[in-house]
Amino acid sequence: MHLSKKAEYALRATIHLGMATEVGRPTISGAELAEVNRLPLKFVERILQELREAGIVETQRGKFGGYSLAKPAGEIGVGQLIRLVDGRLAPICCASENAYQPCTCPDEDHCGLRMLMIDVRNAIANILDRYTIAQVVEVTLRKMRRDGIIPPFASEASHPAGAEANRRKADPADGFLAGLSQLVTLNQETNGHDHH
């Protein structure tokens, strides 16, 4: 699977709209979304227009207008959003469940590459279809708070001083699933203490 830049930016914008809602800013201007994502405003507005047409995002007019999620973040699936923008999760078109197209292989039913790519597609879908934007927002905000980072839209300062210097290579322990499992453990510990 190759996530297009457009799908990446659509996911980032949707996650940021979810984060904004969680910190008490349910409506965010296109300019603010473009700034926090370091993207050209016209590009962000084009993506937001597509998300609006798909019922993911809505717009409010007026002085305090802008963009907001059209439905709860818990109802927006990550896989659903990627399919909306990119069309398929499968690495090759003949392995796609939702956007199948025949390939040039002479015997598709007995093609080892296709069989392997179907398994790759299934593995990708099993992760992306399991989680919602709300879960990504929850894990992201939890990690930001743990690291002392002010979430975007939480205050006038969208990024604390020094955040730029803290960038580092991706650490597998910093992945979403690792953050989610920490959150589940924390919730279980909290719920366990409530019963004593």
What descriptive keywords fit this protein?
single chain; mainly alpha; two-stranded antiparallel sheet; 7 helices; 2 strands
Descriptive notes:
- With 196 residues, this protein is mostly helical.
- It folds into 2 domains: 5-75 and 131-192, Arc Repressor Mutant, subunit A; 88-128, no CATH class.
- Helix content is 50%, strand content 4%.
- The chain is built from 7 helices and 2 strands, in the order H-H-H-E-E-H-H-H-H.
- The protein has helices at 5-22, 30-37, 41-53, 78-86, 112-128, 133-146, 176-194; strands at 57-60, 66-69.
- It has a two-stranded antiparallel sheet with strand order 1-2.
- The termini are far apart.
- The relative contact order is 0.13.
- The model is unreliable at 156-167 (pLDDT under 50).
